[in-house]
Design brief:
3 helices; 75 residues; globular; mainly alpha; 0% strand
């Protein structure tokens, strides 16, 4: 039987690994392309190139927005 602490540490390690991948998702505010499109293109590229694997944990939308310095609000 796995303890709660063991589950927490395992899940925390998976999330930490996922957050390390956000460096490849860096957005450029000086581009004319909207930020949401830049994010879409980078995620798509990461999937197609094999950087993101099926079942790999991604950060929550709030964590990703915080990491990238963007807002979740639609304007």
């Amino acid at each position: 039987m796995v303890s709660f602490a063991g589950d927490f540490l395992f899940n925390h390690a998976k999330r930490r690994q996922a957050l390390q991948n956000t460096a490849d998702l860096a957005l450029n505010r000086t581009f004319t392309m909207p930020l949401h499109r830049q994010l879409y293109d980078r995620l798509r590229h990461a999937i197609l190139s094999g950087q993101l694997h099926p079942g790999q944990v991604l950060p929550s939308t709030r964590a990703l927005a915080s990491e990238l310095g963007i807002s979740l609000k639609i304007q």
